[in-house]
Design brief:
Blueprint lengths: L1 E6 L4 E8 L2 E9 L8 H12 L8 E7 L3 H18 L3 E5 H8 L6 E9 L2 E10 L2 E4 L4 E3 L1 H5 L6 E4 L1 H5 L1 H8 L3 E3 L9 H13 L18 H13 L1
Parallel strand pairs: 1-4, 4-5, 6-10, 10-11
Antiparallel strand pairs: 1-2, 2-3, 6-7, 7-8, 7-9
């Protein structure tokens, strides 16, 4: 089964084309430019390197969040457009689950943490059990100090939120804080593809027209609209 996967949830942009458990090609970039300037070119380059035409794919996978509002919209809309035009199935994958999946084997709890801006982070807790990842909490947004305040045992922390707030986390948790390797903090599209594979095999795909970003927090536009409506009422 050939799957093309995309992640644009953070500053990094990653595209991979995999066949079952084999990564045929993958490109991951880290830039301050908007993903709309290079995503389709990266998709074409990855497909070319893999030697697989897009119409020969079995499906698409894409990170649906949480993460950057603009980045998520770009990645999801691009994949939806390809899925529609090529009549291929699509699966949305959590960015936090992807980060936790990439972590090295550990007996400790895993906290996946993505910068949410406004001095907040998106986060969720996971645990590896018998080689499988188990979700231990819902995906949330909070101040970094609130995200980690219930940690009482050693915890592996991963994601760009962990990198950004490492001094605060270290000061608060001390020896309880264990940080992922540098390479594990960046979401890889090959991991997105790997997470989607089981669902593709079960034909548990998402309706393309219903695939939307999972923001968790309301956008600035939504917050402003709520304030306007409150004033009117």
């Amino acid at each position: 089964m050939k799957i093309l996967a995309v992640d644009t949830a953070t500053r990094s942009c990653s595209v991979a084309l995999v066949e079952d458990d084999t990564v045929l090609a993958e490109t991951t970039t880290l830039t301050n430019e908007t993903h709309s300037r290079h995503l389709m070119q990266i998709i074409d380059d990855v497909a070319g390197k893999a030697g697989v035409a897009l119409n020969r794919l079995d499906g698409f996978a894409v990170c649906i969040g949480p993460g950057s509002f603009t980045g998520l919209r770009i990645g999801i809309s691009s994949i939806k457009g390809l899925a529609y035009s090529l009549k291929k199935p699509v699966i949305g994958v959590s960015s936090l689950e992807t980060l936790a999946t990439q972590c090295r084997p550990t007996p400790h709890m895993i906290c996946a943490m993505i910068d949410a801006r406004k001095h907040e982070v998106y986060f969720s807790f996971y645990r590896q059990i018998n080689g499988r990842l188990k979700k231990e909490s819902r995906e949330q947004v909070a101040l970094p100090a609130d995200a980690i305040r219930h940690i009482r045992k050693r915890c592996l922390i991963v994601g760009n939120g962990a990198q950004l707030y490492r001094p605060l986390i270290t000061e608060t948790l001390g020896a309880l804080a264990e940080f992922a390797e540098d390479s594990e903090h960046i979401i890889r599209a090959s991991t997105v593809a790997r997470l989607s594979l089981g669902r593709f095999m079960r034909q548990d795909t998402d309706a393309v027209h219903l695939l939307v970003p999972q923001y968790i927090r309301k956008s600035d536009a939504e917050l402003h609209l709520g304030e306007v409506n409150a004033l009117k009422s």
